[in-house]
Amino acid sequence: MLELTMASVSGADAGATAGMLMADTPSEPGAVLRVGRDQSVCRLVTPEDWLFVSRVHLEFLCGPDGVWQVTWLRGSQPEPSSEVRLTAGDHAQPLAYGGTAPLPRGGNGEVVIQDRTAPRSVNVGFYHEV
Question: Quick check: 46 and 71 in contact, CB under 8 A?
Fold first, then answer.
């Protein structure tokens, strides 16, 4: 089971958890959870006017071995207006535009989408239950 929690944070709201959204799905090969502005395909939806987040920004996909990965999907623009950072345990790394990174099996962490032009972020916490 992969559990996601998402909070959209702007300026003065830093640290607040109001409006937190949650989604989960079993760890079955091919299972997918998406984060973005398009609620027709995303289980976790950001504010529609937060254009630094693509229609479908992040995709969490369960591989054939039950290991989850996260991909920052390329949007319609050649250069993104955000940065994405993955933190798992004590390890933090930037996620490249169009890049993929594995999530720790049975671990937890956070993926942060940071607006490059304003003090806004989308914080997606994850927990992989085995």
Answer: no
* Distance (Å, whole) CA 78 – CA 18: 33
Number of other CB atoms surrounding residue 15 within 10 Å: 7
Three-state SS for the chain is CEEEEEEEEEHHHCCCCCCCEEEEECCCCCCEEEEECCCCCCCEECCCCCCCCCCCCEEEEECCCCCEEEEECCCCCCCCCEEEEEEECCEEEEECCCCEEECCCCCEEEEEEEECCCCEEEEEEEEECC
Q: What is the pTM of this model?
A: 0.92
Residue 111: closest CA among 85, 93, 88: 85
Give the model confidence (pLDDT) of 6-29 as tens digits: 998 887 655 554 568 999 999 999
Q: How far, in whole angstroms, is CA 93 from its chain's centroid?
A: 14
Q: Which of 35, 88, 29 is nearest to 59 (CA)?
A: 35
